[in-house]
Amino acid sequence: MKNYLREIEISGVILMLIGCISYRFLQQQWGIYACSIGLILWVIEVVYKAFNWKKYERDNKQNIIMMLFVIVMLFTLILSK
Prior knowledge:
By secondary structure, the protein is mainly alpha-helical. It contains three helices and no strands. Helix 1 runs antiparallel to helix 2. It is flat.
């Protein structure tokens, strides 16, 4: 699994990006599914790295910061409506 972590992470991010763009700007319903699959792949990678904290400590700290940033962005979007 550790050999494929980078590929899983990149695949998840690309699928999330494609899904978000297709749903938001092209109004395609399949974008939700692409984004969901990408999110699931990204979560698998994050959980694996979390269980191996010592080995991926730097990546885990970056993931925590990224998750906090995304949560703050979501709250601002929700509260701005």
